[in-house]
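Q: Structure tokens for this one, please.
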Amino acid sequence: MLSNSHSSVRPASEPERAYLESLIRADYERCHPGETIDDMIRRASFSKEDKGLLRDWMAVATMRAAARHLVSPPSMAPNEKFTRSSSDAIRATSSSD
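A: Here is the predicted structure, written as tokens:
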């Protein structure tokens, strides 16, 4: 599955990024033996190929989060949930909004 290069997932916070990465970490490492997702993230800062690969994997993570009915990661407050903005970025918002 390829994602649109103009539409990428931009996690709102570090806990959100960690949550999304946790949804894809095992599959990425299974598909790329001897390499970790952290290796790809590091290379994405200077490699357009890895940047695109990271974008695609984060799109998968976004879909998995949506499929789990936007279950909050443990580090989030109980009244927060993930929502999708018009730019396809997932944002954590308070359920009282």
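A few notes: Residues 84-97 have pLDDT under 50 and may be disordered. The two ends are 33 Å apart (CA to CA).
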